[in-house]
Amino acid sequence: MKQTCLALAVLFTLGSCVSSRKYTDALAREQALIAANSKLNADVASLNTKLTEAQTENSRLINQIDATGKNAAELGRLANMTQQQLQEEQARLQQMRQLMEQQRQAVEGLRKKMTDALVNFRPEELTVFTKNGKVYVSLQESLLFPSGSATVNPRGKEALGKLAQALNTNPDITVQIEGHTDSIPIRTKFEDNWALSTARSNAIVRILTGTYNVDPVRVTASGRSQFEPIDSNSTPEGRARNRRTEIILSPRLDELMRLLETPATTTGG
């Protein structure tokens, strides 16, 4: 009986050792598989990153090739132009330069005429300057209007008369009148600053065309309200500068625009 019990104890102990070893081996294999899977995922992520970079570089190279092809096509077009076509193209460019210079001179001449016509008015009342190929006559509210009003002062009418004399001797000049206000809400009969700025520009149009015979076809009027300030609205001085009417004079560009719209010389098929 004792021998039987001893044998059973030995078998139980051996069985336990075998099961424990199998469990340990299985756990080790599982951990190895997890580590291998993590490494595989990292390798896949790295490969995806490299693939994205390669696709980006490929797109860049394709765009570069396209640009090179376009440049080559343009060089080929120029190379295929006849000597006569090249001369015609050069003549066209030279004509454009001459017209642009004439335009610049016309604008400068117009600025001088307006400055001379308004020489008796102080700089704090009005200024004359050029911007974007146009002549600006900027008249302050203090010269033209009582505060909150669209009725032109006598001295403002005098200034507009001098301006009209210069305009009537230059019939090819187009005239755009823009009313501007500060940012303080209006508290008079006008609904808002839009209404005031528009009413003021319209009042000037009526004086130029009705009193001083400027051709109405040449003139347009608009109100800009408070939205194109030239100074800060946080100070009284800045707000005073913003309350202005700008008369914008533009020499006609017909010839220059016609030339710009003319297609460049091309080779035949």
General description of the model:
It is a single chain. With 269 residues, this protein is an alpha+beta fold. Helix content is 62%, strand content 13%. It has seven helices and five strands, in the order H-H-E-E-H-H-E-H-E-H-E-H. It has helices at 2-80, 83-117, 141-144, 154-168, 193-211, 236-242, 254-261, and strands spanning 126-131, 134-140, 173-180, 219-223, 244-251. A five-stranded mixed sheet has the order 1-2-5-3-4. Strand 3 (173-180), helix 5 (193-211) and strand 4 form a beta-alpha-beta unit. Helix 4 crosses helix 5. It is elongated and about 115 Å long. The termini are far apart. The relative contact order is 0.10. The model has no long low-confidence stretch (mean pLDDT 84).
What's the Cα radius of gyration?
41 Å
H-E order: HHEEHHEHEHEH
Which band does the percent of strand residues land in?
5-15%
Give the low-confidence spans: none
CA distance, first residue to last residue: 116 Å
Please summarize the sheet with the most strands. 5 strands, mixed
How do the strands line up in the largest sheet?
1-2-5-3-4
What is the typical, i.e. mean, pLDDT? 84
Bin the helical content. 55-70%
User: What count of helical segments does DSSP give?
Assistant: 7
Tell me the overall shape. elongated
Query: What is the number of strand segments?
Result: 5
Structural class: alpha+beta
